[in-house]
Amino acid sequence: MSWLVLLGVAIGLAMDALAAAIAVSVSLRSVSRRQVLRLAWHFGLFQAVMPIVGWLAGVSVVAWIASWDHWCAFALLAFVGLRAIRSGARGGEPGASLQDPTRGASLVVLSLATSLDALAAGLSFAALGVRVWVPSLVIGGTAGALTAIGMVFGSRLGRSFGAWAEVAGGVVLIGIGLLIVLEHT
Q: Domain residue spans in the chain?
């Protein structure tokens, strides 16, 4: 696999992490460096580990996972998106009624939801006979970097547009989930 192809795959896999990072940062009152690093680290880590898990699982489980992975991603993203919409619709400052999505269960849910495609990529690497170690690091690093960029961009958007931006971020998360479902049907 060429470096150009690998970078294209990594950027493609990181797009949902980028969009989720924008939505998360919009939902927060203000974004600290710690929150940016925490989300970027976890999104990058999950994006790096999932191809390895998929590669280790190999081609024997491709059909089983492919039949439900998109529904899991949709459910997880819709859950977090609906929480953001509800919070934004209540008015007030963004993030005032939501727990910090860069901590606890929300962080794990978002990390899983945005990395399920990377699991499928790992299965593809196994089917193609591609070693997964270098691609996994590139995928994880790209996702982490784009997540950090998304957090910074989203926090500026949130400060400018407040509750409406929070609702829009929730809609974007649900839209990502719907797009994942539509791509698999």
A: 3-184
